[in-house]
Structures
1.
Amino acid sequence: MNTIEKILSNVIFGLQVLLLFLLLFEQHISLPYWLQPLGRMHPLLLHLPIGFLLMLGLFQLVKKEVDPGAFFALRRFGLYLTAFTAVLTAIMGLFLAREGAYTASALSLHKWTGVAVSLLVYVLLLIEQHTRQQPRYFKLTLLASILTLLAAGHFGASLTHGENFVLEPLLRQSRPPITEETPLFEAAIMPILEEKCTGCHNARKRKGQLDMSTVPALLKGGENGPIWVAGEVESSHLIQHIHLPLDDDDHMPPKGKPQLTAEEIQLLENWIASGADLRKPLKAFQAEEPLYHLAAQVIESPIKGKAAPAYDFAPASAETIKALNNPFRSLRPESFNSPALHAQLFVRQTYEPRQLRELTAVKEQLVYLNLSGLPIKDDELKTVGEFQNLRKLVLNGTDIKGEGLIELAGCRQLHSLALSNTAVDTSIAAALARLPALKEVFIWNTRISEPQAQAMQAALPQLKLHLGYQPDSSEKLKLSRPLLKNGKEILEPEERIVLAHQFEGARVYYTLDGSEPDSTSPLYEGPLELKYYAHLRARAYQQAWLPSDVADFTVFEKGLMPQEGKLLSIPEPPYQGKGFASLTDGHKGHAGNLSFPGWLGFRKQPFVALYDFGEQPPVVSHFTLSYCENINQYVMPPRYVEIWGGNSEHSMKKLARLLPAQPHTYGPNAIKGIDLSITPATYRYYKIIAAPLSRLPAWHRGKGDKAWVFVDEVFVYGE
Amino acid sequence: MPFLENRLNINRRHFLGKLSIGLGSIALGSLLMPELFSKAGKQADGLPLGVQHFAPKAKRIIYLFQNGAPSQLESFDYKPLLTKRYGEDLPSSVRQGQRLTGMTSGQDKFPMVGSYFKFRQYGKSGAWVSELFPNIADIVDEICIVKSMHTEAINHDPALTFMQTGAQVGNRPSMGAWLSYGLGSENQNLPAFCVLLSRGRGNGQGVYSKLWTNGFLDSVHQGVQFSNSGDPVLYLSNPAGLDGQRRRQMLDRLAQLNNMSYEEFGDPEIQAKIQQYEMAYRMQTAVPEVTDLRREPEHIVKMYGADCLVPGTYAANCLLARKLSEAGVRFVQLYHQGWDQHGQLPTEMPLQAEDVDRASAALIKDLRQRGLLEETLVIWGGEFGRTNYCQGRLKRDDYGRDHHPRCFSIWMAGGGVRPGMVYGETDEFGYNIVENPVHVNDFHATVLHLMGLDHEQLTYKHLGRRYRLTDVAGKVVHDLIA
């Protein structure tokens, strides 16, 4: 290898690596503008590898006619040229592809076949460099390269390009920049047409007799006449063709060419709908107009930001913003890259006036200030008045009385002012009238009454006063239910039941027999005694309110703890709780939530638990079984409950048996207790059995099915 | 093969020579990819964290989650046909082989049943609302009802998890965690993501902390559950015998120790820890201030209903949510349990509606009268809908409805949502969506959009891929935005 060959060989290798690297991280490429022309040279350069490669193929055919030494030398030379131009073309192609504007599917085929050509040709070169003979796979690879090339050429041709393609990025610089004076048509509509339409519809190609490259030609239309009707989107040919199915011959742009994006279509439609004006300058549009909003998204120019609130002030420095942030003061930009700042101060107890004063460092940029709940006084509003660009000010729950509002006159942009929950009165009207941009004022729960607010509203027609909720004294609402003050359902021995209500002066009536309480039931006057178990129902009454709903409380007295115990039947998964421990851990289940770990659920077999009170058993006289009633979920009271006792696990006798009353209809979910008394005894072991109902009653939705029994605690009491 | 043999003869000089050329090329190529090798302080996609991607409509969210899935057919999706064809079997042309839960798959008939409760049109928008929700009907011109929500899951846990985290399986960050991650905390004296639970009187389904998990995000983004009794935030009060001054002294000394070890090891986690102690200390002041009702006027009780004074009720949580949100909490998540009416719907649903109707409407009015509604997004809804046919035995005054993922209704208010609108439509049977479907992913994309975040840009790289709240789907529903 001579030196030139060596250099060329290394250059080609380097370019191949570059190509693969670029491919691998294609998504991250951000192309500087000065490289764009290089990418756009791709369509020019690509003819070289095509020519060279075809030449190599043809050359192979005349091998016998040529002197072998010359043949190999020439072919080697040709291969270097092909490999070099192919890889260069491929890299340029990648650059070009980064500019977008191509349909992904057509582009991807062209890209991969193009890359394949470059790689195949490089393989050819490697074969040439490293083998002395010319093996058969050289010819095969050559053939494959040519075929791939043809495919790549074909896919590439279908990605069409317009006139002046290569030089366009350079020419674009000479176009007048877009300003507020530029017509929206020129700034936003024409570029779309130039990008997507004029490739075929220009002065030279004129497909369908249509030239879209200049305004007069556009207005003339094509073979079917004008291409749009101002104000009538549906009858405009331009829009009709865009919306035809992609496979339709008349769909525009044709299948395989860069298609219009949804935003572009929306923009064209909006432009036609709003009258297809060719001259109306950008500045004549309101920022809120949809057409302007859509256009602003495609225009690349300094005025792009108008769609968002227009801020014409310079941003504060990042250091200033950072320095003003502390735990009790948040200062943040409205959004990424916005100069506008939003501030809120927090925590009444820690407030110091300097927290507000220091914000004057960004007085120009502050557009939102929330001082809710802070002890701000009227004289501090003077500081707020310096925030000349403030849009919204929230003073709810501050200590202002209103006389300081006059200081806000400097806030010429202020459009929303919240004064709810303060002591302001009608005297603020004068200050409000001096705020030119003010649109809404919130005065709920101030000293301004309803009639006063109406008078103020009439005097200030340019803004809306929000008085908010005014209680209606004739409206009667239900009182909240009484509460169990004990805060727990299992009370210590001797502990009394304490009821409470959030309303001072509310009267609470209760029952203990399960009947519904009303104002004739016993009045709760003080803590109630508890023996074993109580189902307490209570209801609250108060003047000007409707009586509350009935509150149901099931409370149990804490029982004797066995030394040990076990379950003799296994609860059904997943309702296995903590096994035996669930029965004595003091954790109650919830009637509406059966998966609560406190519950043990039984269906196929009865609940059977063994309590062991050890060598010196206490006197026992009473058992209370706490169970769940959730009838809709098939959870019923047990069919029967039995207590067995004895001094050995294996010989026990039945001490009590009870058949609990069964419900006759659906009722609320509840935790209930079943009480069983026995003749006082001192057995070591007790067995508690609760059997599920084997058939649900006829009125139940699961009639005939097996019911469940859910138990969360069994309490054992002495005398 | 001779070719390969030859390649094996490559020598070291040759190898190193080629290697340097290759690396040179890569270095050259990387000049075109400025962000490939620099990631400091940025998401993978180049947008900075902790700030809105564009000007937001809403600053904060209050999500009133109706856990268990309230029936759309007794609330906001009025279907007179179901009443007309009471008891008739649902045509299979409507059901289209839709999968059923294990609870009704055994049923041989699917008798259609209309609402037990009357509907009427309200407001300027003329939206139909059932008599169960008179107060929400009152503010119907302030809210945007979406009748065409649909989801992929058919059981509570996956549906709930999907609604809250964008995935049916657990362990992805919840919406609130994503927002805390994407936007940071406004008020550094309170958690950015607070969770309030309440329990209704209907058949309930549990909620669990995976619904407010930070998933793979940093644990500071986790939802903080407020408790209904004792300290609202666990361990908030100083332990008995320790006053505020002693606590301060202790923290100062602790910070000194921590700073010493920071100077020795330089681990930034140590500084983070010091900051966390300081935040906990500030919370001792900030939380009681927020939960204190003394600065509320007396008639606030009438507005939200008497229950708002009873800790742990839905009404109390709505009031607390307003106060937290007002104090700059980015995301307040309520869960009200008890909406799973497989049976006894006509008895249970009025109880549930009574719990939430007045307080939900009061929250909207309360935000409005403080001028905060436009910057606070309120969302009301469950995890899926309920079937148009009866589960179990059908009676005039007793029926149930099974789970139905194909359509359900939610409503939103404030925060840049178009008020007084009913969006989307279901068929006459209330079974399939016929117009403007909104998938859960679309809903998430829209909510993030309202908060000034591009759902495709808010990503977190975990286990080798980037995750989003909307995973690989979701479109912003611009029609919902004012």
Note: Chain A has a mean pLDDT of 88.
2.
Amino acid sequence: MGNETLLEDRRDFIFVKQEGCSGKGLRCDSNSVSGSVSQRACVYCGARVVLNPITDAVHIVHGPIGCASYTWDIRGSLSSGSDLYRNSFSTDLQEKDVIFGGEKRLEAALEEVIEKKHPRLIFVYATCIVGVIGDDVEAVCKRMAAKHKLRIIPVQSPGFSGNKATGYKLACDAIMELIAPHKAKKQLKQPGLNILGDFNLAGELWMVKNYLKQMEIPVIAGITGDSSYDTLLQAPVATLNVVQCAGSSTYLAKRMEEELGIPYIKVSFYGMEDTMNSLLRIAEELNNAEARKRAMFLVDRETRKLEEFLKVYRPRLKGKKAAIYVGGGFKAISLIRQFRSLGMETVLVGTQTGKKEEYEIITELVDETAVVLDDANPAELERFIKEKGAHILVGGVKERPLAYKLGLAFCDHNHERKHPLCGFDGVVNFTKEIDQSINHPVWSYLKEADL
Amino acid sequence: MRGTLVNLTVNPCKMCMPMGAATALYGIKKCMSILHGSQGCSTYIRRHMATHYNEPVDIASSSLTEEGTVYGGERNLMQGLINLIKVYHPEVIGVATTCLAETIGEDVQRIISNFYEIYPEYRQVTIIPIASPGYSGTQYEGYMEALYQIVKAVPMNTVRHQKVNVVTGQLSPADTRYLKTILDSFGLDYILLPDLSENLDGGYEPEYQKLPAGGTDIREIGKMAGARMTIELSTFAGETKSVGRYLQETYGVPCQVLNLPVGLRDSDRLLKFLKALTGREIPAAIRKERARYLDAMVDSHKYFGEVRAAIYGETDFAYSMVRLCTENGIFPVLTATGSKGDRLKELIREELQGVSDILNIRETIILDEVDFQTIEARAREAKVNLMIGNSDGRRIAGKLGIPLIRRGFPIHDHVGGQRLRILGYEGSLSILDEIANCMIDRKESSFRDELYARYYKKLQADISMQATSVKPAESRTDDRTQSHPCFNCKAHKYARMHLPIAPRCNISCNYCLRKYDCPNESRPGVTTQILKPQEALQKFLEARKKVPYLTVVGIAGPGDALANFPETRKTLELIRKEDQDITFCLSTNGLMLPHYAEDLISLGVSHVTVTMNVVDPSIGAKIYGYVDYMGVRYEGEAGAAILLTNQMAGLKLLTSRGIVCKVNIVMLKGINDSHIPEVVHKCKELGVTMTNIMPLIPVKGSVFEQLEPVGEDELLAMRKACGNTLKQMYHCRQCRADALGTLGQESFSIAVASRSGIMVDQHFGHVTEFYIYQYHNGDIQLKETRQVEKYCDGSLECEEKEDRIGRIIHSIADCNAVIALRIGEAPREKLKAKGIQVFTDCDGIEAALHKAASKLRIKAENHMAK
């Protein structure tokens, strides 16, 4: 494999760790290089990821059909209430709409969906061409909201207007638009917290809520996991925000801190260590010694069970090399730690939208010769996976077939999964998944691929 | 959109044009595609395809940004092309536009011309523009458009030859391979466009090739204008852009349109056509396939009468499925496509007309430009009981509780979408078998219950039985020992709780005064308040909230747990109901142990302590005043013998059942002290885990009031000697019967360098803020977050502005230790000089603190020893 897999424009986004060199040089948070087959999605994607789990909202994609078609119910966010969010609504713009404008169609669509589905909350996502043909989406939403007395929040998310992270920010703004008018008066504040950036994939938010329940800490709202119009409007009374997916929701936490006076902390429930530390941190932040004790008890009971479990698996995984390619930096950091707790080393780390400070920590954490990549493409992943001799890749759906073609085990860490990877149960699922893939007999047969 | 909603598409039954274009381009040899638009289009389409084909799908994007959208995307596209060529070295590149590129009016043809002009070195790469705005049609139109543009763009050689062009709609790779087998079996020389057979269903190769090596060679495409004829296997290609028609109109290549070879009639049709074309007989193997298919049609025909099928997907697919169904007496009550389908409607009506009388079909629903919400509503209405189509219909199938026969694209919820077949007798047979089996399964899984409910249930009332199972106590005993502070000295952070519910005792020990708590497990002192079982439960529930690491509930008197067995049993039962995880522990003199051992096991007691001071009745007689057993009071050796026998029998019983047993031995100077090693040996034989040799605590008023307790040295020497035989307990605190908490003592103040507050994730020199923790007896408390800058108090170290490290060190001068991700050699030395221990770690804060504290503890102990 020659060097031609590395494009000149991409060199700054790749960092090969060497002794005595910190990761400050890595470039990130920039636009993708054209033609490099980025694994990133677009602004609309980012916005939809964050807002999608609001279960009783109608999510209308204003644009031609593609965007709605490819995002129909593709995420594993679970709901304890409405299933409305699992539908894909689209104005399905046609050629004539592109020429004459899509406002009328959007208005008619809103009229109809309000009449038929009686939602209290609608999000309208403006996709690429809406941003170009100049529909005044904002005005339509405002007018219709006033007419029907419900909340219609426009999300200006044409794909070209940035990257996925821009979409996160837009979604956070949309949430603020929704909840800011319900700012709590100081005396109404009750002890309790919001969980930001957990989308209740495979019921993970429920799991975290259960832990908090055992600590006797009430959760006001998941933002946006398993949330509804009503629960979101409660959010401003919370005394603390805990941010699980830092990449998508830190901005919202900052806004809520500034405008609603709710402080926030970043947490992670991936892996035993992170879960433990996060629960304790929450209790500490609330200044609740009782809750901390209860957390310790909970953590202790669970980790004891896990230690027994891990005793079986650690020897099976020790010394294996992992490659990580995931969406955000915070998740990558958690994964590196999880691998380490299994006795595995991480030889490649990449993210779609990692931040500078996250890459700094990543470069500190990984093995001496590991490669760190921002916005990697398949050619780079292929090259470095081979070069570093990784045994398993953790990634999303698009990376899976590549791993398999390279004869590599794979762990699905994406929004489509149907088993929880967070909390204590997540450790079991994660470890088993890694083990089942890495220690599968098929890899030995691949060595004899040619007869 | 003529769905249940007029102005809104709900759950689309179609995809966009670039998806179709990208798929078609995957059937071209050494071809890469780039979507001219924003990044999301290519990512979503890649995800959609990768999940179906289980293959890497590399589709580039020109990644149009705001600037590109305003000023044109030429620069982006050109850079994208160069990058694509550099990394993949393709021979062909398809540039498919998207909504965005078309709307901002990108002239891709012109950009490509400019590109060749500026970069003549890339002229050997054939770059094909494909106009595929997402709003102009579905993936079907995009696919056909791509094929059309490819044929138009490739320079044509019109020299006549004997090859036959075969053009198809989107087929699965497996179907494509099958088609090629059929064509080959007639010895036909053909150009297949496109050929998805390898690129989207590749094998595992020792060396992965990222550029698709299979597919139709562009040099072959260049010969299509000279072909003998074109066979277009698509009933509806003519509705959009038809390659066959283009070649006919432009180059005079005759075109024959045939239905997809699905089902008996259309497979026959293709084979007959090939026979006529090549003048060869239909190969015997294929004739056998046909015979088997016919045989299967007969075998299964009776299962099909009850099927009410809904068929959905692309027009070619839907039409073929309808024809397959009607041949087999399956009633397609609903047919739907997301594309425009005037001609489809026409053809289906024609098809059904011929068979409606035979099948007794009264009416059928045909929908075009439809969404899944509408399909669902109409399927409900038409009482559909089986669906045939892509995996997007699974939600409806799930809601209606009916089976889905997965065919077409995409298949996202099953593996093997790329190998699903519909073509030829074999492909048709696979569908037929699946449909028949669904109907068989439906019957099989329901007929017993249905008939039972209908005819039998009325005769008999339900009898339901409930069995409760008892969890075996042994399964988790090891785990429990790990967290039992009295059984594992490393478990010092765990807490245990003794519940004083057992006031009575059945023996008299000379070191004990019954007025007070039994000193076996309890220090003499204040008389314990005796709790009733219900009160004990309440006390436990309160404690559980307050005490961290409360893992053990024990019953240790103040009398003997087994002399108060009803209370003991009740208490344990009540607690077990509230807490499945808590460990039960019990201490006893062992007199009643043989009687209650089984009960204890079934109550879930996993740890038992027996106080057994002697194994020789003659020595025992000096220790025990009397023994009350089965209503009789025994004194002297007789009593000691009964006690001793029962203790040993009880221990044997328990250890043989996996219960962890500890034996307490009170060391009595001049009475049993020289006898103790013998006791310990016996314990080992009995399977006891450890012994706890304890000093006498002389109790005023007891017989041994005046007996001199053994010294610390003597005790340690005895423990050490017996340690060779059996594990010894060194950390016993001789707790009260109502003791609660942990057994150790330690306290440190530790500073942590952390940005997140969760992990140790900051370099010492970069710290602006420390998390200051208090570590006390295994309990950790965050005291404060401390700003380095604010901590400066004007002292010398702070004045040196450049000495940041000095200021950092100063800010934690009161701490015992500091934990950071990394630290330089100089600050490490400085901290050391100030007596602050340094630990580097990249763990979570909690784990790092425990590690640091344990090292601090060892250091402190060593210091004490010196």
Note: Chain B touches chain A through 110 residues (CB under 8 Å).
3.
Amino acid sequence: MLWFAVRRITSAILVMFSISVLVFLIFFATPGVDPAARIAGRSATPAIIAQVRHAFGLDRPLPIRWALMMDHLFIKQDLSSYVNIGSRVVPQITQAAPVTLSLVIGAAVIWMILGVAGGVIAAANRGRFIDPIIMFVGIAAVSVPAYWLGEVVNLITQGGLHHSIFSWVPPSGFVPLTQSPGEWALHLIMPWLTLAALYAGIYARVLRAELVNALNEDYVRTARAKGLSERRILLRHALRCSLIPIVSLFGLDFGALVGGAALLTEVVFGLPGVGLLTYTSLQNLDLPVIMGCVMYGAFFVVLANAVVDIAYAFLDPRVRVV
Amino acid sequence: MSEVILDVQDVTKTFTVRHGGAGARGRIQAVGGVSFEIRRGETLGIVGESGCGKSTLARCIAQLLPVSSGSVAFNGVTLTGLSRRQLRSHRREMQLVFQDPYASLNPRRTVGDIVAEPMRVHHRGTSEQIRDRVADLFRLVGLDVSSLVRYPHEFSGGQRQRIGIARALALNPQLIIADEPVSALDVSVQAQVLNLMADLQDELGLTYLFIAHDLGVVRHVSDRVGVMYLGELVEMASAEALYQAPAHPYTEALLSVAPELDDGRARTRERIVLAGDVPDPSDKPEGCPFHPRCPVAQDICRRVKPTLEVADDGRAVACHFPRRR
Amino acid sequence: MSFATRAGVIRAVDGLSMSVERGETVGIVGESGSGKSVSMYSILGLLRDANVTIEGSVLFEGREILGRPDSELRAIRGKDIAMIFQDPMTALTPVYTVGWQIAEQIRQHTGASKKQARKRAIELLAEVAIPDPARRVDQYPHEFSGGMRQRAMIAMALSCEPSLIIADEPTTALDVTTQAQILELLGQLQQKRGSSIVMITHDMGVISEVAHRVVVMYAGRPAEIGTRTQLVREPRHPYTWGLLGAVPRLDSKRTRLITIPGTPASPLDVPEGCAFAPRCAYRFDRCEERPALHGDDHLDACWLEEPDKVRLRRAIEEAS
């Protein structure tokens, strides 16, 4: 177990190191991109640009500049934006992260419940009318783009019906959990459902396929020969084995979403999360913020993968490490 | 006596595997110091239970896997250590037939193409000559020439194995290495394929290295038989001698429990049911590899590993206390 | 019994009548597609498909079990009739311990507590000679060797003291020495408990070593039924001759094997009349009509006259 943790942490550090180098090279060593000119402003004279370049250490060799940036980001934690001079990167991220985490964790709970329930119900009723209905709803949810669904949800809950049945839906925005748990949930319920719809559809379809395969396995035949009920066979034997691929899928999706892939949902519902932050920083080519966001995203992807590995070992004794 | 066509000397194959979480590397000796010769026109059978290394041995001989040590000489030329390019001309004289006729044929190509492929790769003749040769091969293995344009899934298991044999024969090889060629087939079909292989041997003067787990099948096809246990040859003798009077206790036990038809003609042998399982090859016992399950093991068997001793009658046994009859 | 499929109705099993007495081992032998496994699965309701229809009658301990609702069959499956399957690698659920899976069956059919069921599972593992059962009970299937997994399957089958065990190719996936261990174990347990066994296999050698009576099946139909000695020493059906002649023997010199031309009949396309006729070297006019299974204690479905059968069989024996 200790070895497992050591290996995980080492690989996490390695991954984050390589990503930071990669991002650094893409944004700082690409010809034509001159951060100094950006910082200095539109009408800066060459002398001012040179001065800025020196002040920000941009005239030093690349490895040193990388090390300086890492030092400011992780150790001194005072890396500041090139665009809004004085605004620091780390507080920006720590402000945005709870928004994204709230959105993604809530949505994940909903999509896992809906996806697993949908998959199990469809598999249990394969060949009957309810199976294709669930599968159709699933594929419909997958096919609808999140921003479109989000806009439609907004239109309905904030528009015409806002004064009748959807009067309880608050205007878009974010209320921290620490401030008011009720308001937090109320503000997030529509974003949650919107984000969850896509994934619930995929998960239900994947799980159904896995379950149908599992139900043809020899061990299911053994379970039937033991005299177990169909319900027990499905839930205790087939589902347990079918959850294994679902968990790895979940790890990838969850990591990516927390890392900023929930951007569209954040934009549509006006949630100031990491996705939005990344998006704005990319538009302004605000390199320190980009670096911060990427590092934050990489951290969560690596973390989610570690959690998946642990869940894997729990679900499947065959991969358990000694 | 005819000349030696294949000379296997002290072939060892070791795999390095990672197991456990601590990154510990284990070494599994799949084949340990196997030596034998095959003479032109004979059939050598290798029999053993799953995990005894017989398939790995076949792959090492065919140069599909590099040996860890030892040498394989074919027609007097040492193959081990040759480059891929150098191997090419030798390889076509030595062809493989695999166990699973379902998996070893490309499902997207017609069977005619599959059989023609080795000839195309080795540039054997014009496309017309190749076409004629494929038709001849189909007739040779008892398949209908009109089925050349069909795909593997349209054939039964036995027919697919015939296609596999036709492909192996395409380049006129001298040696056929057959790895469990009939174990996936129904009994009646298995008999057909075994008879076909015997006919082809007579007709084309082929030499076979025949690997199988089924004692009856190996007995049926082989002139000489080698028995493998945990990667090592424990006994080798003429089929007749081995089956009449096994000298190694493992061979004896194996033969005694092989199910046989009780039709009044069968031998009356006392059944020796071995206890336990074959040990994990990564954790090979000290001394004689068979000693933990051997009914006649003595103290020396736990300490000293017996070597394969060749007696006057050509029989070789690796045992401190072989049965003398 | 028939399956409705896209290719039409398949008669997978057709006109099989057989009985198993208490304490007896009946072997069902046949090649792939002979219907030997489906016949047994179907009577237990293991073929769960709306397209499967079964006709006829299956009496178990004097009670009709065919057509019973699944809830009633469930109470019989695993308790009165237990099954052992071919491939012990895949027949156990990989994510639960062996002990848990045995205990699950015990708890399903008895009111045993978790603790009692676990204790019983350890006893059963000891009974099938698994070393160190108290430790092994908490291991997963992948930590068992093939032979041990099959022992665990047997322990599970025995857990509710069934009166009938259906073993579907129980040793086919195992090595010869392991096969010998498993067959010996099954024999011992049967003697001790007096349960009946139906052994499904393709291996005439195994059948001739363990079965009291044998049913030879071809294309879903019984070709010959008799005692082991009758079947092996005085086989009457040409298909049985072929099956016996095709087995390479340990004790005879290298000769040509007797083969049956062609491949086993597909259940999708069973020939008219005698199903074996297209592959039979002795067919004649009458074979266009389907022969009935006839005889007293040794039955066969072949139109050949009795003296001809004896003469032909002798000729084959001398030839080999």
Note: Residues 141 and 197 of chain A are 6 Å apart (CA to CA).
